[in-house]
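Fold this sequence, please.
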Amino acid sequence: MKNSRRDFFKQVAALPIAAQVALAYGDESKLRDEVEETTLIRKGRRSVFNMSGYAAPAIPKLRVGYIGLGPRGLASLKRTAMFEDVEIRAIADCYEYPIQQARDFFKSINYPAPAEYFKSEETWKDLVARDDLDLIFVTTPQYWHAEMACAAMEAGKHVACEVPLCYTLEECWRLVETSERTRKHCAMLENCCYDFFEATTGNMARQGVFGEIVYGEGAYIHYFTTAQVFAEPQPPLSKKAGMHRHAVACTVKGNRYPTHGFGPVCVAMNVGAGDRPDYLTSTETDDFVRAREFAEILKEGRDYHKQFAGKEFSGNMNLSTIRTVNGKAILIKYDRMSPQPYSRSYVLSGLKGFVQKYPDPARIYLNGETPATEEEMKAIEEQYAPELIKYLRENALKFGGHGGMDFVCEYRLIDSLRNGLPLDLTVYDGATWSAVIPLSLWSATRRSQPIDFPDFTGGNWKTNKPLDLSLRGGGSTKVKAPTETAK
């Protein structure tokens, strides 16, 4: 490793995490170097405290803060406001107009007005410093996630963070180490783990219905036209942050959004609880769309688009394959550029059965090549839907959020904290599933060379318990009747 490379990352490490990402995000060579440097530094690292299975002290009256009130944050806030014995005490955003939307909502349901922070990009720190919060939701642009989550844990708060948890390997490790040292939970809000079909078939897999699962497949296939990707952000999206998920992300190779596909497959295959990723290889096609179409957009002469001039864009499809230490394989696909139906793929291939969710309709095969009939699918759901899903299904459908899985995800987290129960999804899950981002970039830009996958659990994957979607002594959190503004 060259000294100049080490010096660069020493300088970057002294900056706030968001600044680190901004500095290196568009430079693939520096991002590859970051993976190598971090791997060297953390090699052989052991856990100092296992957050998996850890039951933090119960907080019957849960006090909540929100950082980031864009569309996803506001929707989450509306659902959280419907939980009894949960009080939203503070909200923060860079701008006042998202705060105003929250004000209007609180007024419409006669909810006590929380404290507000919106004067600058730094005012979120004032919310974190409050001594009357137990849980902070981080629903900001993705490049802020790691810095805000670490700051909240350092301040003695549990964290619920939108996906992905982070972008770089250094951030993954910093989040894990901060969570272990502070003994504060950092849960990534991976809602797809609570999708009704994925939760049910994952439960079946853990019960051995499909036999040993030897292969899984996940994806994020979500087509956006080049015009959509490079559209100048308008309120409620900020011009600075609104471009990040699409326009900035497509200038860097690798799988930039892996957790929706990877997460549900991991919990079905007990990755992190008896197995773990061993190494990853990633292959990416050339760009057959973006550069050509962006060249036409650039001719319009708008200043906003000039910042992307001369950029090399990511390929149409990224394919990342993870082999586990137990010899299983998982394929994760990523494509936002090719015109095709939305898909998270979700395939489980076992020695006694097979599951495939996309394309619709979702199918379960228990007898070779013949899928279960509609009547058989209803019987399977009745027998194998987890207790949590059955308990929350009616309210989940009322409150919505991607078909109800957002509601289940948030309810489960809040109910677990209120009752002093271990969380379903821990910082290790968030770090592992997010680590595909930097690892896939490294491999895809190194002619698909394999790269070792970090063990964020420090060896505890051998004894960690699989996901359990029973109520586990919880389910005591009551839900208010939904109003039109809360849906």
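Confidence is low (pLDDT under 50) at residues 1-6, 8-24. The longest strand covers residues 213-221.
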